[in-house]
């Protein structure tokens, strides 16, 4: 049986021979009812092993992990995380009776709204992998470092958020292994079971959504010529608009004891937290964390033409992207202005047919770097034959195009989250 068929079997299996969905849900609720960890707010100046260096950037004493620097974007100054290393977001998979399973970790992170979220098998920075923190090695690290190249189903460096990270990529990897008995906070799950968890707010972390957005790419062909032309157009349009600079100390808000960045383009905080988690490689630590209460919604417009699905994507120009932009959701809402723009977009498309809200899903960003950041994913559908329109920075792509763009590393983290949920909504029937 082909891998594609085994993926389809996985999508269609909600109660498997390994676990029925109800038992997985009960395990999730049990994990979240247990005492998880202690989180305390700490002044940014009182974080152990963190400091403003001689260039007034906020750094770790080891010189590793990440630092917070200034970014200049089209004349606007803000802050950004610099992490000159590629981490790994890795899923171990296996096939049992022609069904593809994934080893999911119910992982606790300090910034999670709930205690534990469904997460990749491995979620580790290079500093974690090199044990800079002084703790034990992350579990299953050998599954991604000591294997043959042909054991990878996919292994793609994909970009992180362009307003939060400077040219940051993580390897999004899926490896195929033999079945083995699970333990502790790990469970073998089908795609159908993971998709079913999308009905539970804030249950699936963004790293898992990112990796599983690549499932459709497993048999992807080379990118189409006209799609390459579109990509090159935006590369030329958005190049060289940002630069990395020193001195973020001037953004220190002494009243709130945090870094506070606010421009006409963006607004967020860096606050300090102290954490105690018993189950982790390191049980006690403190760190800076991104606090972004302004992020509200990822709006995605979907065009249906008979059985074909198209996505209306926007080329988002953000300071941290290597090529100056990535394609992402139709609209990212961070306040009243963007909400008005989002509503106006829906009105524009209404001239081509009836636009309907078909799904709203609330999920949060990754809890190791983002504190209590929960975002509504809203999906609007329009039945129309339109395949092109004149609207600056917006493009209509087939799902095949989007999958190819994803593999090229030009689909944003937000775009991958939306693509993942499209799979849960349509369950791949139209691919």
Question: Main attributes?
Answer:
431 residues, alpha+beta
What would your notes on this structure say?
- There is one protein chain.
- Helix content is 22%, strand content 36%.
- By secondary structure, the chain is an alpha+beta fold.
- Strands 6, 7, 8, 9, 10, 11 and 12 form a seven-stranded mixed sheet that branches. Strands 18, 19, 20, 21, 22, 24 and 25 form a seven-stranded mixed sheet that branches.
- β19 (308-317) and β20 form a beta hairpin.
- The chain is globular.
Would you spell out the secondary-structure blueprint of this structure?
Layout: H1 3-11, H2 21-33, E1 38-42, E2 50-52, E3 58-60, E4 67-73, E5 76-82, E6 87-96, E7 99-108, E8 116-119, E9 122-124, H3 126-129, H4 142-145, E10 152-159, E11 169-176, E12 186-189, H5 191-196, H6 206-212, H7 225-238, E13 242-245, E14 252-253, E15 258-262, E16 267-276, E17 284-291, E18 297-305, E19 308-317, E20 325-328, E21 331-333, H8 336-350, E22 355-364, E23 370-371, E24 374-383, E25 394-398, H9 399-407, H10 413-426
Parallel strand pairs: 6-11, 17-23, 18-24
Antiparallel strand pairs: 1-16, 2-3, 4-5, 4-13, 6-7, 6-9, 7-8, 7-12, 10-11, 14-15, 15-16, 16-17, 18-19, 18-21, 19-20, 19-25, 22-24
Helix pairs in contact: 6-10
